[in-house]
UniProtKB/TrEMBL annotation:
Entry keyword Transmembrane helix: yes
Domain of life: Bacteria
Keywords: Membrane, Transmembrane, Transmembrane helix
Transmembrane parts of this sequence: 6-25, 37-54, 60-78, 85-105, 125-148
Protein name (record): Uncharacterized protein
Amino acid sequence: MNNLPLVVLIFQIIPESIAMIFLATSILNNWIAEKKYILFIFGVLEGLFIFFLKTISISFGVHTIIAIFSLALWIYFITKKSFTICILSASIVSIILMILELIVVEISINFFGLEVQYILNNYPLRIILGSPQILILFLLGVILNKIFWKKRTNKLN
């Protein structure tokens, strides 16, 4: 049982969920700029689900698989693309997030001399160290949207 405070939900889990959905829909070339509220709503719902998932006692691997499937479900609701494709997109985004988290943790351990357990138990530090991953996920989504937007406008011309 993991008792996370609401501050982690509000400042880390929900923003991370919104960023993951944004990047996943961007990977699928789904233009939803005029429907940003959908990203927010589904991101909050995914964040609440992940928050709940982290409070029950299940092994980390099972947690990850359930999280990927729930992310794929939200992506499916937004894009209406094949669920298999949505699982692939959710998996790609999850792998990107895991890589980014590993990089930040390695930097925190090697550069700042912090222990992993200290980071996990210090919620303000955990939120601060989680911010770069969230920003990078959003940035990757923006870049993909710009690339796909150029391709869309070039096809129209």
